[in-house]
Amino acid sequence: MLKAGIVGLPNVGKSTLFNALTRSRNAQAANYPFCTIEPNVGVVEVPDDRLGVLQQIAKTKVIIPAAVEFVDIAGLVAGASKGEGLGNKFLANIREVDAIVQVVRCFDNDDILHNEGSVDPIRDIEIISTELILADLQSCEKQLDSNRRKMKGPDKDAVKHVSLLEKLVAHLNELKPAHTLDCNEDELLRMKEYFLLSSKPVIYACNVDEGTLSNVESNGYVARVKEYAMREYAASTVVICARLEEELSELTAEESLNYLKELGVSDSGVSSLIRSTYDLLGLASYFTAGEKEVRAWTFVKGMTAPQCAGVIHTDFEKGFIKAEVVSYEDLTKLGSVAAARDAGKYRLEGKEYIFKDGDVALFRFNV
After folding, report:
1. Distance CA 48, CA 250 (A)
2. Which of 135, 39, 27 is nearest to 91 (CA)?
3. In sequence order, what are the residues at sequence separation of 6 or more whose Cβ sits closer than 8 angstroms to the Cβ of residue 330?
4. Which end of the chain is more exposed for a tag (fewer CB within 10 A), N or C?
């Protein structure tokens, strides 16, 4: 399962957000730096309203949603790439995740200490980004020296590595993250071999106070983060109130919805964050729907029909024959599988078919 790491400076609400995401209090949350040392890990259901609609069509009582894994990582301080604070441990934990959710504080509260002494989300973003870049720069320089030595021998591939690493070192020296480097397809594949921290996709979670939720536009911190994240990193942002979301996690779904309505909010920030992170990881869902259950299956965007069949069981991929597929939109519009078949919307797809988010499928296979 692909993992997203929750990162940020100390005391910005990472562990509180993790507790809200996982509907637990597994992560210690307190008003002092380095409250989290060992990373907390939680598997989180992906909210998807389509499941309830398919449940009615399939006439089943069982719904199984998709899931994504979140890791609550220790807070970072300036100088982490040189071992300051829990820097080395922090960076090692980030290396193990596939995407980054950076929590940035976007509220004022004198009772909650800020590690840097004041609230400035752009500064906080730049501290995290700089430390990841500096750690990557050290790594790339070592790998560049190694590949330059290999060029003198029989390793022909070293020439391509040197070319890319030279570009990366120059790019990182400008304090630009690796994921913003303009690369061709071969270079992108090659870059994965370097396990760079700043090559991971990022989404920014603006942690606001409860009063901001009904009028997000009034929060100047959020406006600055949205503009900066898009301009500098082509990254998206999600607005959350971690403290409120943690409290909502202890209520029923209906109670939570009613409380949000009282605040003038239509959806939970945590739900938006989970869905956005799922997309950031390059994941999508297809469905199986029958009397036994309606289930969302996670696949990586770009997977073929046999590969998606293999998500259910490896035998499905090995013995793949065809996939019976109908889009969620067509199925729900027509109201039943029979009606979709009659309308010609239920189709047979072969091994080359690329699955799309929302496909409803039944696999034919032979073992």
Report:
1. 20
2. 135
3. 340, 343, 345
4. C
